[in-house]
Specification:
The structure is a homodimer of 171-residue chains. Chain A is of the alpha+beta class. Chain A has seven helices and five strands. At the A-B interface, helix 1, helix 2, helix 5, helix 6 and strand 3 of A face helix 1, helix 2, helix 5, helix 6 and strand 3 of B. The structure holds a DNA duplex (20 and 20 nucleotides).
DNA sequence: CAGTATCCTGTCCGATACTG
DNA sequence: CAGTATCGGACAGGATACTG
């Protein structure tokens, strides 16, 4: 991820990408969610070059997604443990996973997500925590938050004026 | 995104990244969800170089996220309309957005997601469509799907043997 | 086992100029 | 307005060799 100066680092999604925008970052996190914590576990699982893994791990640690923790004194050995921030990234991976399974699985899924206890497959969707209403591109909008800048307010106003059914291809 | 040969393109999340792994792709989609459809709308909104925008738009169109549709005969003008596949990507953007707002907002959010009708902020979470149970990294696992390969089965077995509470940093 | 050190290639991206 | 053409730079990622 090159440094980005776009006015749009005001958008949380854009900021998120500055954190995990590299290809491998997300896959490393995916494996971390499976319980992987060690260098070689990641390396073998991903088939990634060690220098690259080292770089990405360092970056993710710096970004506060992992904590590097000593698990053996001699020889000194570290493991990479997800922080709260890292763990909270889970929905992103799940969303990506679900989308991939629906739209990119070449005739049938190779992998499914399942409840840990019942082992029954789950079908992940986004809902509002309060109302439990499903969140889709048609029923939510962006609104200014407490720290919205002047420019952001203007932008949001102009968006409101947009043809709202732009994404109504074939429906 | 360089071509990846890792055995792990078997994972839907990895395949998804081959589709939208570039930085701009997701931001373009984000804007598309706001109702943007035209070249210059994207260009101005993102502050992206036209050649790059052209490339990304072509790639996303090829990947089946957008459909390029003629909206004016003379002069010939195209707009980029989200397909069903593209629209289904929304949860990923929302998840990214929510995570960014929680963990990267420097004292207060500039933007919030809200219900389109009531304009009340929503708090996006992942749940199982059936049971409505919340999906977290601790209560779901990967299981083999109908098309799981031999290698995948072996891999999943080995994961099961992993210390299951690896991500229990400070909790 | 857990990395670091080098070298190399690809390409993503930025800037800019130009066209119907 | 909606792009294409060209050039250059930065860096992610690959391959490989080496260390405690």
């Amino acid at each position: 991820m090159q440094p980005r100066k776009s006015a749009f680092s005001e958008c949380p999604a854009a900021r998120a990408l500055e954190c995990v925008g590299e290809w491998w970052s997300i896959l490393i996190l995916r494996d971390a969610f499976q319980g992987f914590t060690r260098f070689d576990e990641f390396r073998q699982s991903l088939g990634i070059a060690p220098n690259i893994l080292s770089r990405r791990l360092a970056h993710l640690t710096e970004a506060g997604m992992f904590e590097r923790r000593l698990y053996s004194e001699k020889p000194p050995r570290h493991e990479y443990v997800l922080t709260a921030k890292g763990r909270d990234f889970f929905p992103v991976v799940v969303a990506l996973f679900a989308w991939g399974n629906t739209h990119l699985a070449p005739k049938g899924e190779a992998l499914l997500l399942a409840d840990r206890k019942t082992e029954r497959p789950v079908d992940p969707i986004m809902v509002d925590a309060g109302s439990k209403a499903r969140i889709t591109s048609t029923n939510v909008v962006l609104i200014p938050g407490p720290r919205a800048s002047r420019g952001m307010l203007k932008r949001l106003a102009s968006i409101k004026a947009l043809r709202p059914t732009a994404y109504s291809l074939e429906e």
